[in-house]
């Protein structure tokens, strides 16, 4: 029996587009046609103005590091095999703030505002240092 994974949500009809894009290496955002703002995680209405005139768009994948913390213990699979890891909040270039994981970074040299680029691990968006 395969152990349950706690890093992969069950996709419903609405979020399936997001996870299918992620599996193909694209990060999707939702953009509001009424106020023009983007948001993440995906919702069926705009969290800024409540409009339902919201559509998918592909994000640039560029972000800056807002804050982070090093997680030394997490008993939920698969996280327990990854500790210590860097849980991060990043500001996407399009504006939304996103909870994610930072990979491939020197944990002792992280700084707020560091440039990041999206990467995908098992179809889940994570971020790594770099803007190239
Ligand atoms: Zn809006």
UniProtKB/TrEMBL annotation:
Give the domain of life. Answer: Bacteria
Q: Gene3D superfamilies from the entry?
A: 6.10.30.10
A Pfam family annotated for this chain is: zf-ChsH2
Q: Which residues form the ChsH2 C-terminal OB-fold domain?
A: 56-121
Residues of the ChsH2 rubredoxin-like zinc ribbon domain: 19-54
Protein name, as recorded: Zn-ribbon domain-containing OB-fold protein
Q: Which organism is it from?
A: Streptomyces doudnae
Organism lineage string: Bacteria, Bacillati, Actinomycetota, Actinomycetes, Kitasatosporales
């Amino acid at each position: 029996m395969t152990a349950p994974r706690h890093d992969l949500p069950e996709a419903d009809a609405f979020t399936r587009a997001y996870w299918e894009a992620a599996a193909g290496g694209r990060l999707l955002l939702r953009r509001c046609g009424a106020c023009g703002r983007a948001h993440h995680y995906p919702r069926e209405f705009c969290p800024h103005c409540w409009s339902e005139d919201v559509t998918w768009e592909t994000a640039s994948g560029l972000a800056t590091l807002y804050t982070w913390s090093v997680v030394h213990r997490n008993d939920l699979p698969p996280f327990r095999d990854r500790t210590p890891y860097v849980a991060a909040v990043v500001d996407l270039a399009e504006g939304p703030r996103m909870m994610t994981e930072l990979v491939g970074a020197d944990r002792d040299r992280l700084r707020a505002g560091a440039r990041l680029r999206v990467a995908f691990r098992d179809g889940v968006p994570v971020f790594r240092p770099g803007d190239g």
